[in-house]
């Protein structure tokens, strides 16, 4: 039933996204989108549509990569469960009270740690969230703000620094260069394109501005006001993706040991890095290793090591007996059941939009007969739409990059200009993935922040749109004047700061009232 369904291909994604915001019930909303695609593809036959929807979900569950990511999530739950029950989180809070004296320090710490552990975007959300979640609560940072920091340092950091994203981007660039007939090194093109991944660059800078200055605006300011005035991490109506205290109960009545927090994370990081090296050992050199590495398998090994280290510590320190240890293990698995279901539904919706030819329709609609000066904006907007509707930045890159490079080369005849296009594609793809409620990385940020998923998306979108609007302006200037990175990057950062300062001034009285006596 695969094909190009034209405008109808947009319907499932629209239904899912609108229902997510209206009902705040993610799983039924995602399934409604999947079912709608079946109704369209089978011309109103609801029985065939139901069968198609169930088969789609089952096929995604049976996919090896997806199954490994679900197991990664489940074992992360096990690790979190042991850290909580053994008093690791409590030990960190005690340590943090003596080291971290302000809300600003928490924000800066989470921001910097996210950029330092750039190996994988999901790993960033998991580690950063677990390290700072309880401290954020202590310092009255809202779950919305904390989940924004996690989400905004995940994909942007992974796309710019050392990570599994590099090899994937190079592979897509290679396809585009071959399609365009450009004889050049994919690695050279990748390096050339980095400054044009402006959404990632500006987002990381923007997060730094927000956490250092404390200047919030829009719905995020309301969330921060609530947290500062009332101490409520989540709103009264929120349904947190991860509520450890209610799910796991109180920690064991033992002396908290910081080792029970640190060792599981060290085990995960070391094992994950080993997994990257081992699975990519057939490649030559650093880049060859990254290109050949199986990132999902490495993450699975890392999360398993985290969970097993919890078992060893619980028994080794005699914090728990064997039965309590196994109960904690099972509680950790249960903690992530809802998360796994949401991920499965998000993947399924992405698959049906692919089958309906959503990306091909958008590329065809936006990519034909466009003048050279508007090409950068066209590519960026296309990446935004496809990624937001499908919830995947990697899928967006895979679809658009091999098309965009030859398109730009055909229109402009400039090979060097065509080689920076992947940065524009990735910029749009990260925005859509960042702000889409059906994105797995957005879900991960909500999970490990302990935030309500829709509250996270709702408060994050205005900040994402702020950065995207500056990127849009810079790409317009690039298209018209061919600005160089040493001009458009400082200019964009300056404009971002002016926007943040102006918006915060508009809300100045409320912000001052909320923060009075807190810092």
UniProtKB/TrEMBL annotation:
Query: What superkingdom does the record give?
Result: Bacteria
Q: Which residues form the Na+/H+ antiporter NhaC-like C-terminal domain?
A: 163-480
| UniProt keyword Transmembrane helix, yes or no | yes
Q: What is its main location?
A: membrane
**Subcellular location(s) per record:** Cell membrane
Q: Please give the start and end residues of each transmembrane region.
A: 6-23, 30-54, 66-84, 105-127, 196-217, 258-278, 298-320, 332-350, 370-389, 463-481, 487-504
Has keyword S-adenosyl-L-methionine?
Answer: no
Keyword set, alphabetical order = Cell membrane, Membrane, Transmembrane, Transmembrane helix
Q: What is the membrane topology here?
A: Multi-pass membrane protein
Identify this protein by name.
Na+/H+ antiporter NhaC-like C-terminal domain-containing protein
- Species of the source: Terrisporobacter mayombei
């Amino acid at each position: 039933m695969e094909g190009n369904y034209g405008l109808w291909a947009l319907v499932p994604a629209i239904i899912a996204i609108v229902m997510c915001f209206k009902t705040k019930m993610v799983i039924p909303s995602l399934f409604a989108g999947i079912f709608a695609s079946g109704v369209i593809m089978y011309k109103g036959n609801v029985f065939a549509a139901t069968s198609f929807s169930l088969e789609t979900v089952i096929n995604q569950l049976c996919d090896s990569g997806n199954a490994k990511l679900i197991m990664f999530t489940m074992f992360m739950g096990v690790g979190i469960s042991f850290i909580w029950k053994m008093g690791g989180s409590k030990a960190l809070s005690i340590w943090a009270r003596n080291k971290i004296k302000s809300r600003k320090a928490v924000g800066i710490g989470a921001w910097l740690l996210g950029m330092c552990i750039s190996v994988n975007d999901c790993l960033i959300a998991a580690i950063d969230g677990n390290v700072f979640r309880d401290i954020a609560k202590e310092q009255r940072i809202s779950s919305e703000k904390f989940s924004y920091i996690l989400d905004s340092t995940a994909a942007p950091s992974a796309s710019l620094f050392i990570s599994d994203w590099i090899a994937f981007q190079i592979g897509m660039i290679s396809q585009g260069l071959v399609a365009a007939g450009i004889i050049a090194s994919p690695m050279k093109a990748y390096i050339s394109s980095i400054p044009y991944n402006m959404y990632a660059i500006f987002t990381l800078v923007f997060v730094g501005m927000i956490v250092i200055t404390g200047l919030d605006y829009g719905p995020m300011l309301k969330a921060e006001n609530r947290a500062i005035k009332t101490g409520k991490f989540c709103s009264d109506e929120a349904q947190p993706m991860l509520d450890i205290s209610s799910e796991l109960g109180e920690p064991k009545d033992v002396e908290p040991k910081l080792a029970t927090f640190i060792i599981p994370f060290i085990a995960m990081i070391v094992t994950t890095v080993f997994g990257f090296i081992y699975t990519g050992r057939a490649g030559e050199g650093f880049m060859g290793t990254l290109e050949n590495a199986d990132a999902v398998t490495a993450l699975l090994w890392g999360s398993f090591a985290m969970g097993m280290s919890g078992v060893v510590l619980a028994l080794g320190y005699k914090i728990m007996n064997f039965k309590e240890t196994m109960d904690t293990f099972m509680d950790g698995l249960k903690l992530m059941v809802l998360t796994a279901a949401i991920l499965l539904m998000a993947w399924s919706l992405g698959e049906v939009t692919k089958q309906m030819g959503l990306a091909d329709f958008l590329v065809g609609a936006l990519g034909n007969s466009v003048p050279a000066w508007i090409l950068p904006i066209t590519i960026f907007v296309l990446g935004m739409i496809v990624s937001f509707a499908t919830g995947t930045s990697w899928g967006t890159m895979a679809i658009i990059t091999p098309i965009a490079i030859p398109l730009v080369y055909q229109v402009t005849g400039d090979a060097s200009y065509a080689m920076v296009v992947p940065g524009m594609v990735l910029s749009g793809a990260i925005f859509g993935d960042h702000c889409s409620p059906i994105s797995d990385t957005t879900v991960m940020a909500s999970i490990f922040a302990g935030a309500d998923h829709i509250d996270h998306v709702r408060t994050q979108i205005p900040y994402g749109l702020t950065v995207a609007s500056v990127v849009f302006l810079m790409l317009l200037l690039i298209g018209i004047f061919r600005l160089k990175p040493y001009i458009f990057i400082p200019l964009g950062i300056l404009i971002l700061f002016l926007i943040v300062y102006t918006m915060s001034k508009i809300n100045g009285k409320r912000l001052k009232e909320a923060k009075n006596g807190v810092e």
